[in-house]
Amino acid sequence: MAAGEQQRTPQISSSSTNSSGRPVTPFWKEKYERDARRYWDIFYKRHEDKFFKDRHYLDKEWGKYFVAQDGGNLVVLEVGCGAGNTIFPLLSTYPDIFVHACDFSSRAVDLVKKHKDFRPDRVNAFACDITSEQLTEGVEPSSVDIVTMIFMLSAVAPDKMPLVLQNIRNILKHGGRVLFRDYAFGDLAQERLMSKGQQISENFYVRGDGTRAYYFSNEYLVDLFLKCGFALEEICVHNKKVENRSLDLVMNRNWIQATFTLNPAGSLSPNNQHDHHTCKGMEDELAVETSQKSDSEEIDLSVDFSYMFGISRYLDEAQILKIEAKGYDFKIKVLAKEYQHTCKLTGLMLWESAQFMCSLLAENPSIVAGRRVLEIGCGSAGICSMVAASFAQFVVATDGDEESLDLLRQNTSSNLEAEFLDRIWIRKLLWGNEDDMKAVKELSGNGAGFDCIIGTDVTYNPDAILPLFKTARELISDKGNGDSEAVLILCYIQRRVDEDSILSAAKSQGFRLVDKWINGVNKSNGIISSWFCGNDVCSAFRNVTFSILYFQV
After folding, report:
1. Which of 121, 165, 433, 436 is the most exposed place for a label (fewest CB within 10 A)?
2. Separation between Cα atoms, residue 333 and residue 414, nearest integer Å
3. Are 43 and 212 in contact (CB under 8 A)?
C-alpha cells in the first residue's frame, strides 16, 4: 500500500431476518401459485440457458455416489433440470449414467433437448409438475439410484413440499439417495425480499419476476425429509462472504447442502436420524464485480446483485402505451405488463385511476386552471401532471422513488412541447419526510402551499394513509387561489383500504369531505358529477369501479 493511501473497509450488508415485512395479499399469493408455471416459462424465455452457470461441483461434493458399486450403470433423476446446467456436466464426467430430467417449465425442457450434448439414449427429458403429476408416468417405479434437487424445492410452496418428496419416493430405489442443495435461512437475498414486502409466508418469498424462493433451516429441512420416509446422512450450511467492490459491500450468502437416503440399511441414532456432519458457520470469502457472476462454482444462487440492490433489469423490457384524452395523445414508457405482477416500484406502472383522472382533467380544465398544482405519487407516467400543465399556473409532479422519477422525466420530455414542459417541475417527495416536504413547498411560491393537490391510486397501502394526509396538509394552501379554496382530490380503486379508514385519517389532519363520487353515485353538492356533463368519460371505464373524494381544509 502506498504511503498515505487509506485502506478501504467495505460496508457489511447483514443477513439478519429479525424484521418482518408485510405479506403479500391472499389474491397475489393464490395468483403466484396458480401461475407458477407461466412465471418460470417467462423466466426461461428471457434468460434461455444463460442465467445459471454449469454446475461442475457435483463431482467434487458427491462424486463418490455416482460410481456404481456393482459395476452397473446408475440411473439419475434431476428434478427441476432447468436448461440442463446440472445434467450435462454430470454426463460429461460420468458417461455411463442415464439421466431422467424433468422441469416444471416446458420451455426449460425444450432448452435441454436443444442442447448440443443432448442424446435421447442418455437423457429422458420431460415436463412435469411433481406437486400434482406422478413421476411414474415417465419413470419406472423404484428404478432411480440418485435424485438431484439443486435449487429446486425452494420454488415450491411449503405445503406442497411433502407431495414432492412422496412423488420422489415412488421412483427411488431402496437405499437410493437424494442430493440436495438450496437456499438457507439468513441469506442476504431473503432479507432483501423481506424488506421489499415480497413475503408470501414464513421464509417463503416472491421475486420480482414472479418466481418464488423458500429459505431452509436445518431443522425444517431434516424434519421435512424424515416425515416423508427419508433418513439424513449429512448436512452442511455454507456461509460465503461475497465482496462487491463496485458497490463497496460485503454480502453474506448462505446455502444448505444435504444427502438423504430412502429406507437405509444402517441403524438410526436414538433421535431417529443418522449421525450427521454439519459445517454451519464455515466461512469462505469471494470478491466479485457488479455485473459478473462468481468465478467460484460454489456460488450458485439465482438472485444476482442488480436485483438485490435495486438496479432495475426490467426497464430494458419497457413497453410504450398510447394514452388518448380530449386533445392529447401521449406515448408513455412504462414497465412491460409481464413484469408488473410483483414489482416493488409501483410507480413504474400506469394505473387505471391515473388514466381516468387524466380524461377528467382534459374535459374539465377549470379543475386546475390558473392554480398551483401538486401531484403526489404520480409515478413514471405523469399523464395527469402533463394535462394540468396546459392550464395550471405551474405543476410539481412528485414521487418517492428515484427510478420512477427518472422515467417520468423521459415521458414528460418526449410528450410535452417546450412551453408546457417549462411549467412542470419534477421532485422527489417521500410522504412524511421533512426535507422533501420543505423543498417541495418552497416551489409553491414563498411557501404559500398549493391550491390543488391530486393523487391517483395512492390509497392502497394502509401504512401510508396517515403519512399521505400529513404530507398533503403540510403542502396545501390555507388561503386558496382568489375566491377558490384549496382542494385535495383523490381518485382510486378500492383495494386494501376502505373509505372509512381514508376519511378518518383525513379528518385527523384537518380535512373535510366536501364531495364524493363512486361511479355515478353522488352524495353531496354535485361538484364532481358536473365534471361528467357533456362527455363520455365514464363509458370508456364502465367496467372499473372508481371512487373520487374531494376535500378542503
Report:
1. 121
2. 10
3. no
Q: How far apart are CA 527 and CA 489, in angstroms?
A: 12
> What residue type is 517 in one-letter code?
W
The per-residue pLDDT for range 258-282, each reduced to its tens digit, is: 999 997 544 344 344 444 444 544 4
Residue 451 to residue 484: CA distance in whole angstroms: 8
CA 26/CA 459 separation, integer angstroms: 18
Q: Are strands 11-13 and 249-262 parallel, antiparallel or unpaired?
A: parallel
Torsion angle defined by CA atoms of residues 40, 45, 49 and 53, in that order, rounded to the nearest 10 degrees: -50
Beta bridge pairs of residue 144: 172
Burial 407-433 (b: 16+ CB within 10 A, else e): bbebbbeebbeeebeebbebebbebee
Tell whether pTM > 0.85.
Answer: no
User: Grid coordinates in use for 455?
Assistant: 393523487
Return the SS3 of 549: strand
Long-range pairs, 494-497, Cβ under 8 A, ≥24: 494/545, 494/547, 495/459, 495/460, 496/25, 496/460, 496/461, 496/462, 497/459, 497/460, 497/461, 497/462, 497/465
State the sign of the Cα–Cα–Cα–Cα dihedral 121, 180, 196, 498. positive
Q: Which three cell numbers stand for residue 543?
A: 367496467
